[in-house]
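Example record used in the benchmark description.
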Amino acid sequence: MSVEIVVPALGESVSEATIAKWHKKPGDAVKVDELLLELETEKVTLEVSATAEGVLETVLKNEGETVAVGAILGTIKAGVVSAAKAPAPVAATPAPIVAPAPQEKKVDPVSTMPPSVQKLVAENNLNPANIPGTGKDGRINKGDVLNVLASGPAPAVATGAQPVEKVRMSRLRKTIAQRLKDSQNTAAILTTFNEIDMLNVMNLRKKHRDEFEKKHGIKLGFMSFFVKAVVNALKEVPSVNAEINGDDIIYKHYYDIGVAVGTEQGLVVPVVKGADKMSFSGIEKEIVSLATRAREGKLAMSDLTGGTFSITNGGVYGSLLSTPIINPPQTGIIGLHNTVERPMAIDGKVEIRPMMYIALSYDHRIIDGKDAVTFLIKVKQAIENPERLLFDL
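Model output (structure tokens):
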């Protein structure tokens, strides 16, 4: 009996995916729940596992092809896979004279490429001899070419006197580009800035860091302080935790904070759900868990949806100042930056203090400048006086 391998549900508002990699090939034995292939959506990479034990019978969609939910990717010949039995000994008998089998005519996979495949090869400056063909008799099909393009950068080719490199954009990168451009085209984005003296929070962290890690098994970072400070400010300025829905404004009285994470595939924003109800240790553990799964490509769709506000930290890369772009349908995002020692006037004296610039990009359609500035001041006050977070001030 043949069991179909089907594209599973990909999550809310996601209807198609790209086949990133097949981990099995036709004829391979498979077990229940064994990984067959990976699908790349606009948000996450999903693993498709075997639902039956047997042998991978057919592969109907190749790496690089776009497939819709419910599409059949291949089939498994169901049945228990066992080791082949050794042939029973046979009494020696004179071998019959057999006429030699007619030699099969070899097919040139290059000359048999369809015109559309030839065009794709030419446009990407590929050498057909280096493309493994999976079609009948080794013919090269479109999926084989897309597989080569998806597997890595093409060799540098000369355009005029300058070498260039042409690489196909991943689905995630294309989605990031589209969403950011849509955000700029739709929202009236404005950015306001402030700066934070990090001395007190750095001293508090240094004082309790070792004891915190010993008790909770996780390092005490600065992000938990900022998540707490942001939640506190959102409660004071609810318009920053809202969204536009047609002619209505939806004010959200829950606080699911997206924390941007850089991965090899691009930037993703997993969400810390119910951040207002979490302790410092709970926030730190959740952020580490989400970041680890993001970099391993193991985030679930639920990890990336439902955020009400976002935090991005360009400071980990050394950024001093930036203007982050809103993650729709949210109306605000705060950008954190590198902490740098600068001379500051403190009580009439010049002192060297660790300073950080912060930036709030907001949708001016529903957030006024006064609210935006108030929000940043609330964050600044909470970080400069971290004891305020303990007393919900």
